[in-house]
Specification:
Structural class: alpha/beta
Order of helices and strands: HEHEHEEEHEH
Number of domains: 1
Distance between the termini: 25 Å
Number of helices: 5
CATH class: Alpha Beta
CATH superfamily: SPOUT methyltransferase, trefoil knot domain
């Protein structure tokens, strides 16, 4: 994910009252700094390098875990209900998706129906759409 994608997700998180959680990989702090166009400090949580353990801890603490993933049991974005508790939206790699060990931690997989010839949306666009739905704005 590049700085522009992180910047887009930061702005969307700000718009819906959410925080962005990212792993503390060597390139991420610089990408965040380049991509952040908010005039105030952005809400960012650092997951550490082991994102799966962080995700498991969030789920154990009662968070609803929603993954954006093409899966047989995925629900359409339009059918995703508004969140009734703290929600974590999981975005995978644009090419390889969410890792299998993280998929096991999802409460629900959501897909974004597409008519065009592309197989998927840009991660920032997909993440933005999915963040708006549980927030109750769509």
């Amino acid at each position: 994910m590049n700085g522009a994608n992180l910047g887009t997700l930061l702005r969307t998180c700000d718009a819906v009252g959410a925080c962005l959680a990212v792993p503390r990989l060597p390139w991420v702090p610089d990408a965040l700094a380049r991509g952040n166009t908010l005039r105030q400090h952005a809400c960012v949580h650092w997951t550490g390098r082991d994102v799966t353990s962080w995700l498991a801890a969030q789920r154990s603490a009662g968070s609803w875990v929603v993954g954006v993933e093409l899966a047989d049991e995925a629900v359409r974005l339009a059918d995703l209900p508004a969140a009734r508790r703290r929600t974590v939206a999981v975005l995978g790699h644009e090419q390889s998706g969410i890792p299998p060990e993280a998929i096991e931690l999802l409460d629900v997989a959501v897909e974004i129906p597409m008519i065009g010839i592309g197989a998927s949306l840009n991660v920032a666009v997909a993440g933005s759409l999915v963040l708006y739905r549980p927030a109750g704005f769509l």
